[in-house]
Amino acid sequence: MSSDQENYYRSKLAYEMDSADLQVALESGEPIVVVDGRSREAYRQEHIPNAISLPHREIGDRSTSSLSKASLYVCYCDGIGCNASTKTALKLLRLGFQVRELIGGLDWWKRDGYETRGTRGVAQRDE
User: Which own/partner contact pairs does 68-71 have at CB distance under 8 Å and 24+ positions apart?
Assistant: First the structure.
């Protein structure tokens, strides 16, 4: 096994999280804050339960002053074709927060059967 390849995969896991890992972490009470980096209107329509709305265009010292830097911030957007989660993660990282990006965003969260809230929210599917 190549050590470069192993380092690549370890680094990737340090920066990203999938919906199943996020759900497990939330259920176990890990200090995680889920951040929706899309517009406030998109958040109002549908979002991950207990996520905070923090549009990437509004991120700065003032909008994050009440947030704890002790938590891990998992950022998401719509999913493939949307880069709001990347912009959100980068801005929070530059402000000193610990961040990861949710792979597949809201789209993959729903495909994995997890509940959403908002005017278009969907209940969790039975397994």
Answer: 68/31, 69/96, 69/97, 69/98, 70/31, 71/31, 71/32, 71/33, 71/98
